[in-house]
Amino acid sequence: MAKRQLNRRQNWRIEKIQGERAARAAKREQQTLKELEGGDLGPEQLGLVIAHFGVQVEVEAQDGEGAGQVFRCYLRANLPALVTGDRVVWRAGNQGIGVIVAQMPRNTELCRPDSRGQLKPVAANVDLIVIVFAPAPEPHANLIDRYLVAAEHAGIHPLLLLNKADLINEENAPALNALLAVYRQLGYPILEVSAHHGDGMQQLQARLDGHISVFVGQSGVGKSSLVNSLLPEVQTRVGDLSEWSGQGTHTTTTARLYHFPGGGELIDSPGIREFGLGHVSRADVEAGFIEFNDLIGTCRFRDCKHDREPGCALLKALEDGRVQQQRMNSYRSIIASLPQDTY
Ligand SMILES: Nc1nc2c(ncn2[C@@H]2O[C@H](COP(=O)(O)OP(=O)(O)O)[C@@H](O)[C@H]2O)c(=O)[nH]1
Ligand SMILES: [Mg+2]
Ligand SMILES: [Zn+2]
Which run of H or of E encompasses 136? Predict the structure, then answer.
């Protein structure tokens, strides 16, 4: 009890100090912004946010002679928080500094709960979620389904990527094939690659071309290896725990946008790679199981939990084989894992 008391007081002090620090930083920002705007600013042009640091962002010029150059930009006070992937209108100041004057509408938003459980966008305009799994660590259909729900919820196309194809053998092949068959039947795109041996990597590159992608999946499936192979100049550590340093309360992980040499963009951060669920409702989960779409709302009871109710359309579809048992199991386990109040 005493210990908890102390922690609370400590927390309060830390928050107070952080608040004061943030206020001082904001004041400095406003001063710099004022000076910038008092000087000569270039014409308005389009830019792409490639990283963000609190209230400042790094913007890549999209047009004109400076296209491809990166500028650190300040935000006009009336603007909402920007995230990596945002398209903006900005004006160049001097010495690689600029001012953002407007945010373009987002096509998609990838959100995560922050330390207080509030949903915050972490990346904008992502249009492909690459869900990575492998023969080892053993894949869990349930986890893949969670990612699929998250993708459907965000309105972003998923690509199922089986990495470490070099580890497929007689022993694990039957289970892997059964797993793949489930998703193939649902019409989800699937690709097999080996980050180590290079098999399928060209097809992967071709799939990523023209898209802004994120790689997600459980630890150890080879996300860092894939990113390293696709972006040779960016060295993310393989197989170590560096990604976890982002979990501390005082470190801010910032997602960064990279250009693949062969075209396409990747938004990457440890936080995004471990991006999960945990912020969806029962209705979101149901909407995330695409084979349920025509069935939801047709059960006899409006508040049907699709458990053992008579006249349940989902149970009927399960019986007929229109819904696969494994997906039904996943659905139930995801629903059971939701916080009680979202039922
Ligand atoms: N056999 C094999 N091992 C791989 C492959 N890709 C990654 N690995 C290994 O899997 C482990 C985890 O890889 P890592 O990229 O750190 O996974 P992450 O946790 O998803 O980022 C490392 O030991 C990698 O060397 C692959 O294609 N084949
Ligand atoms: Mg990694
Ligand atoms: Zn039902």
Answer: none
- Residue type at 121 in one-letter notation: P
Phi, psi of 123, deg, nearest 5: -155, 145
Q: In one letter, which amino acid is 225?
A: S
Rounded Cα–Cα distance for residues 256 and 125 (Å):
13
Residue pLDDT, tens place only, 283-301: 999 999 999 999 999 999 9
pLDDT tens-place string over residues 43-79: 999 999 999 887 789 999 998 778 889 999 999 878 8
Give the residue, out of 224, 225, 242, 269, with the most ligand 1 atoms within 8 A of its beta carbon, to mutate for a pocket test: 225
Please write the tens of the pLDDT for every residue from 79-128: 888 999 999 999 998 877 899 999 999 999 988 877 777 888 889 999 99
Phi/psi at 240 (nearest 5 deg)?
Answer: -110, -175
Pocket test for ligand 1, best of 197, 204, 238, 266 (most atoms within 8 A of CB): 238
Establish whether residue 163 lines the binding site of ligand 1, counting it when its CB lies within 6 angstroms of any ligand atom: yes
Report how far ligand 3's centroid is from the alpha carbon of 314 (Å). 5
β-pairing verdict for 128-133 and 212-216: parallel
Q: Is 189 helix (H, G, I), strand (E, B) or coil?
A: coil
Q: Where are the alpha helices (DSSP H) in 198-305?
A: 201-208, 223-230, 270-273, 282-288
Mapping DSSP to helix (H, G, I), strand (E, B) and coil, where does residue 197 land?
coil
Name the pTM for this structure.
0.86
The residues pairing with 165 across neighbouring beta strands, listed in sequence order, are none
3-state DSSP call for residue 100? strand
**Both tokens of residue 293?**
């779409």
Closest residue CA from atom 26 of ligand 1: 164
71 DSSP β-pair partners: 59
- In the chain, what is the straight-line distance between the N-terminal and C-terminal CA atoms, in Å? 33
- The count of residues in the chain is 343
CA distance 269 to 243: 8
DSSP letter assigned to residue 292: G
Nearest bound ligand to CA 315?
3
- Chain centroid to CA 15: how far? 28
Which residues, at least 6 apart from 116, have a Cβ–Cβ distance to it below 8 Å?
none
Residue 233, Cβ neighbours under 10 Å: how many? 7
